[in-house]
Design brief:
The complex is a heterodimer of chains A (1035) and B (124). Helices cover 51% and strands 24% of the residues of chain A. Chain A has 1035 residues and is of the alpha+beta class. Chain A has seven domains: 1-106; 109-199, PAS domain (Beta-Lactamase, 2-Layer Sandwich), CATH 3.30.450.20; 266-370, PAS domain (Beta-Lactamase), CATH 3.30.450; 392-499, 2-Layer Sandwich (Beta-Lactamase), CATH 3.30.450.20; 538-642, PAS domain (Beta-Lactamase, 2-Layer Sandwich), CATH 3.30.450; 662-761, Beta-Lactamase; 881-1033, Histidine kinase-like ATPase, C-terminal domain (Heat Shock Protein 90). Chain B has one domain (2-123): Response regulator (Rossmann fold, 3-Layer(aba) Sandwich). Chain B has a five-stranded parallel β-sheet with strand order 2-1-3-4-5, sandwiched between helices. In chain B, α2 runs parallel beside α3. The longest helix of chain B is centred in the C-terminal third of the chain and has 18 residues, at 106-123. The chains are: A alpha+beta (1035), B alpha/beta (124). Chains A and B meet through α23 of A and α1 of B.
Chain lengths: 1035, 124
């Protein structure tokens, strides 16, 4: 702001000064110029009239002239001085302006100067920052993006009416600008507007917030005032209501007083006490009965605290309750305690109390009742009850006391204990409702209640009681009435149950024992029979003797082996079998040396006199107490086994012989390799001189290396055997090596492990094998050599083939190149012929024209030929690609006929198109297919004489589209028919045709048809014409 | 303008178009063609451009024209002896209006050139 004011004043002064100076200097200049002009004019005039001398005289005579001159010179200096002043001033002005501009530049506010046209003439950096560079732009458009000078009209006020304006402008981005506009004269003295712009966004926002807060406070104040008014009104209303209520209350109090006094009639004391100083419960009101109860008069009581009536020993406790109740604790409203009358006598009262509000303060209402009599009564009941209970308790049986309707009053401890039901749970329930009976029993017992109530006694019966946890207690149950001794009236019922479970258990046990005994006897008998059967079925002979060696038991096997029947030998001394046999039993029978004998072999005599070998076991026989009562002997007939052993021995010997004479080495050794047995062949194979030499060596010595040994054993352990394993072995001498086939087997006889082995010397076989191998390898080598040669040949052939192929490709390429090279000159010739023919190069005679025509035709033929050669080249190189389009062949044929008809007619021939039926579209290369048809048709025309008819016939069979090109011309000879489609084959046609050919047209036709997936055939008969048939499959 | 290294073809083309009253310039190669175009490019509507030429082939010429931004002032028609326009064609094909197979039929060539010139006239 400050700087803007300075800027306003200073340029104005400077500018006015400059204006004055410039005007003065201008006028002075003019005056001086005029003076000099006048003087000069005068002098010239003088010189002209009077000459130079005249001038001199004139100057002297006329003093005005020197004066004028002097004046002019003075003026000249004056003007010079003024001009200098002006320059100095200008510089000063410029400096000042620069200074102010710099000052403005450094201002914190944005400063702009706007001219009359509202264009921005100056802006400092802050303004630039705020609005961007808008120099020379119309300010409203630049600042506010508006075309209309809405704000600019204010500018008019500033500039035209010298007004100073302050306004706030909020931009779209929320920036709030304070803009101060002031009039100002610029350097040239024009009035412009100076604008200072300050970003007051934050200040403005704060202002607005403060204002909002003030508004908010105002709003609250307004609301509060309104509320207060309402409250005041409400208060007035409340006071009225309260007065009404007080009145009603008074009426109610009167009513209650009456009611309370009525309590006296019902022998209920009533007191209302109120706390006067926090702990005392002063009587506020008492009724008459209360006075009666306490023995005080109402006046006395009104002076007393309720606590005065309570004996000192419990006063504290009651006071405590009173205080707790006062605090609002939830305590029972009813309780009993002792009271003291005026005369000091204690008596029991029951009291119920309530807290109420009396005259706005908490008060206690008490109702009292004299409990003395009730108390006495209760005590009596208690005493009786205690007696009763003690009686109940003293009974060892379960007892339940019921009232006459059968409701349980109590059960005794025994019952509680045994049955697990508590008095608290069941007291008051009907006896028969408690689940200590089964449902069925409940029904049975139900009638008892009636009977017992009538004074009958139910005799004991056995029932099952059920405990709370579900056990069953067998009991003897009885029921009896409880009678009033004096009146004989039934007071209640008593049920008694005696636990007989112990008894029951005991009897059950007895019963069980009896049964067990019975079973044991039976078992014993059956087991005896079982044992006898068992003994009889044992395959060994078995007999027992008593201490005198008399036989007491003889089983069936004994009968069978010896031939003696049981009846014959029982009670006999066992010596009859063989003396020494039984003698063995003797030492057995002596307890001290008793030792069983197992597997003793001896001979006995059978009944039929044979002697048989037996193997027997002997053992003493003891009774339960351990006393030896005899002996037991079992034996088996081993005569046959003996015989078998002999046979085995013989067979073993045979085997041995076999093994001994075996060509292969056979041995058995321990796992560690110690020979147990070995046959002579092994000796020989391993080069042992004596058997001892071998037996003293180790089987593992034969392996050449440790590794080999390990491998063989690994195999053996893994598979249990090694079969025909071929390996080199070391002879016993430690260096000779033989090839052997080794078979090993791990043998486990249950006690020890062995290795049985067979060693076969295969050295000779191996040598043979090696020889064979050598020969085979040699052969293989020879074959390989031969193969290599063959391969080399093949390579040569391949190269030759490649060369040939290359040559072929060269040929194809050559054809292609030559054709191209031919085509260009042809094109040129054709073009020139055309130029000639057009007549534009000069007039032509008829003969010339003819020559040109012939040349033109030949050019066309040559073009066709070259085209064909090119096609051939393309076909060979596989570069001929069909451009397939779905086409109706008929259209193509029409085209061909159209083009060829003229040719035919020129030769006096006919060309006909004959289409049979609907011909479907097919994918073909139209250009190529047309070529095929053209070729066939032109051949027909070319090679046939006048009046030949050529027909293109198109039709379909089930699978193909068929195009026949039929002529009734000269026909083709049979020998030519076969080769007619071969490349370069020419029909030797001196007699049959007038044209000539290259032998490639038809071969191209054939290949093109085949490229289309079709085929071409020809049928012809000399003199009858030819038919070329193209078949194209329809798919 | 016709560009072809074969003088016979150039002569034929000159005569052919002269007879039809069509102004034609000829160039023996790409370099000469570009020189002529630089000189009097405004008078040239159509370029008949042989592909197979020594040193600078037809496609090189098209590329040079493209680089100079002349391709939109001219209709370029390639004279091709082969059916296959070659690998270079791939990226430059969009600048080529048509192909005429060599050897051309003089009548056919004249007909097509007339068509092209009509198109250019219409475009102007």
């Amino acid at each position: 702001m400050c700087s803007s004011k300075k800027g306003e004043r200073s340029p104005k002064n400077v500018n006015i000064d400059a204006l004055v100076y410039s005007k003065i200097s201008l006028i002075s200049g003019l005056v001086m110029g005029l003076g000099i002009f006048l003087v000069t004019f005068y002098l010239i005039l003088e010189v002209g009239v009077h000459g130079v001398s005249g001038l001199k005289s004139t100057l002297i005579t006329n003093p005005i002239i020197p004066f004028s001159l002097i004046t002019a010179i003075l003026l000249f200096f004056a003007v010079g001085y003024l001009l200098k002043l002006q320059v100095v001033h200008r510089a000063a002005i410029q400096r000042t302006a620069d200074y102010y501009e710099k000052a403005l530049e450094s201002a914190n506010q944005g400063v702009t100067i706007i001219d009359k046209d509202h264009r921005v003439k100056f802006q400092n950096s802050v303004a630039t920052h705020l609005f961007g560079d808008v120099l020379e732009e119309v300010c409203h458009a630049a600042y506010f993006g508006s075309d209309k000078p809405c704000e600019g009209c204010l500018l008019n006020d500033v500039i035209d009416k010298y007004k100073r304006l302050t306004l706030l402008k909020e931009l779209q981005d929320g920036t709030i600008l304070e803009i101060i506009l002031a009039p100002f004269l610029d350097r040239t003295g024009r009035v412009v507007a100076v604008e200072t712009i300050e970003d007051v966004t934050s200040q403005e926002v704060t202002d607005r917030t403060v204002k909002r807060f003030h508004d908010y406070l105002d709003e609250i104040l307004r609301k509060r005032t309104a509320e207060l008014a309402i409250t005041n009104e409400q208060l007035q209303k409340d006071i009225t209501e309260r007065k009404q209520k007080e009145k009603a209350l008074k009426e109610a109090q009167e009513l209650y007083r009456t009611i309370i006094e009525a309590g006296s009639m019902a022998k209920e004391g009533f007191a209302l006490v109120q706390d006067i100083d926090g702990i005392e419960a002063k009587h506020v009101f008492v009724n008459e009965y209360y006075c009666e109860l306490t023995g005080y008069t109402r006046e006395e009581l009104n002076q007393m605290s309720a606590f005065d009536l309570i004996p000192e020993d419990i006063r504290e406790e009651v006071h405590d309750r009173y205080i707790r109740k006062l605090r609002g604790e939830d305590l029972p409203t009813y309780n009993e305690f002792e009271w003291m009358k005026k005369n000091g006598k204690r008596f029991t009262v029951s009291l119920s109390s309530a807290v109420a509000t009396y005259q706005g303060k908490p008060a206690f209402l008490y109702y009292f009742r004299d409990m003395t009599e009730e108390k006495e009564m209760q005590d009596m009941i208690k005493r009786e009850r205690a007696f009763f209970e003690s009686v109940l308790r003293s009974m060892n049986d379960m007892v339940a006391i019921m009232d006459t309707s059968g409701r349980i009053i109590e059960i005794n401890e025994i019952a509680e204990e045994k049955l697990g039901f508590r008095n608290e749970e069941i007291a008051g329930l009907k006896f028969n409702e408690v689940d200590w009976f089964e449902e069925q029993l409940k029904e049975e017992i139900e009638p008892y209640f009636g009977e017992v109530s009538a004074g009958e006694i139910i005799e004991a019966r056995e029932i099952a009681l059920i405990t709370a946890d579900g056990r069953s207690i067998p009991s003897l149950f009885s029921m009896a009435p409880i009678l009033d001794e004096s009146s004989g009236e039934v007071l209640g019922l008593i049920a008694q149950a005696i636990d007989i479970s112990k008894l029951k258990e005991f009897s059950n046990e007895l019963l069980l024992q009896k049964e067990e005994l019975l079973v044991t006897t039976e078992e014993l008998e059956s087991s005896k029979a079982y044992l006898e059967t068992l003994i009889d079925t044992i395959p060994s002979a078995l007999f027992t003797v008593d201490r005198k060696q008399n036989i007491t038991l003889w089983n069936r096997a004994a009968e069978e082996i010896t031939g003696y029947e049981k009846e014959e030998v029982l009670e006999k001394n066992c010596h009859f079998l063989e003396e020494e046999c039984c003698a063995e039993v003797y030492p057995l029978l002596d307890d001290a040396v008793s030792k069983p004998i197992i597997g003793k072999e001896c001979t006995i005599k059978t009944r039929d006199g044979r002697r048989i070998t037996i193997s027997k076991n002997l053992s003493e026989l003891r009774d339960i107490s351990g006393e030896i009562i005899g002996g037991i002997e079992s034996f088996v007939d081993i005569t046959k086994r003996k015989e078998a052993a002999r046979i085995i021995e013989a067979s073993e010997a045979k085997f041995r012989t076999l093994v001994e004479n075996l060509h292969a080495g056979v041995f058995r050794c321990t796992i560690n390799g110690n020979y147990i047995e070995a046959n002579p062949a092994l000796l020989e194979i391993l080069g042992a001189n004596t058997k001892e030499e071998l037996m003293n060596s180790n089987a593992q010595d034969v392996f050449l290396t440790e590794e080999m040994n390990r491998d063989v054993f690994t195999m053996l352990r893994r598979d249990g055997m090694v079969r025909g394993f071929e390996l080199p072995l070391k002879k016993l001498d430690g260096h000779s090596v033989i090839w052997a086939s080794l078979s090993l087997k791990l043998v486990d006889d249950g006690k020890d492990k062995y290795i049985d082995g067979i060693v076969e010397d295969i050295t000779a076989k191996k040598e043979l094998q090696n020889k064979l191998k050598y020969h085979a390898e040699k052969l293989q080598h020879e074959v390989a050599m031969a193969t290599a040669e063959l391969k080399a040949d093949k390579l040569k052939l391949a190269k030759a083939y490649a060369d040939l192929k290359e040559l072929d490709e060269l040929k194809t390429q050559f054809f292609s190149n030559v054709s191209h090279e031919l085509k260009t000159p042809l094109t040129v010739i054709k073009a020139h012929l055309k130029f000639l023919k057009s007549g534009k190069l000069g007039d032509l005679t008829a003969r010339m024209k003819h020559s040109i025509d012939v040349a033109s035709m030949e050019v066309v033929d040559l073009e066709d030929l070259i085209g064909m050669i090119l096609d051939l080249a393309r076909l060979d190189s596989g570069k001929l690609k069909l451009d397939l389009v779905e086409t109706v062949i008929t259209d193509l044929a029409e085209d061909v006929v159209e083009r060829m008809r003229k040719n035919a007619e020129e030769r006096g021939q006919k060309l006909i198109l004959d289409v049979n039926g609907e011909i479907p579209e097919r994918a073909i290369d139209p250009k190529r297919m047309k070529q095929v048809l053209m070729n066939l048709v032109s051949n027909s025309i070319k090679y046939n004489p006048e009046s030949t008819t050529t027909t293109i016939k198109i039709y379909t069979d089930s699978k193909n589209i068929i195009i026949d090109v039929i002529d009734d011309g000269v026909g083709i000879e049979k020998k030519d028919l076969e080769k007619i489609f071969d490349r370069f084959y020419q029909v030797d046609g001196s007699s049959t045709r007038s044209g000539s050919g290259t032998g490639i047209g038809l071969s191209i036709v054939k290949e093109l048809v085949e490229l289309h997936g079709g085929n071409i055939t020809v049928e012809s008969e000399v003199g009858a014409g030819s038919t070329f048939r193209v078949s194209l499959p329809m798919d | 303008m016709a560009v072809d290294d074969d003088p016979r073809i150039r002569e034929v083309l000159e005569m052919l178009f002269a007879m039809e009253g069509i102004d034609i310039a000829v160039a023996s190669g790409g370099e000469e063609a570009i020189k002529i175009l630089e000189r009097e490019g405004d008078n040239i509507d159509l370029l008949l451009l042989d592909i197979m030429m020594p040193r600078m082939d037809g496609w090189d010429v098209v590329k040079a024209l493209k680089d100079r931004g002349w391709t939109n002032k001219l209709l370029i028609t390639m004279l091709t002896a082969k059916g296959d326009p070659g690998d270079k064609a791939m990226e430059l094909e969009e600048y080529v209006f048509d192909y005429i197979t060599k050897p051309f039929d003089p009548d056919e060539l004249v007909r097509r050139v007339k068509d092209f010139l009509e198109i250019m006239d219409a475009a102007k």
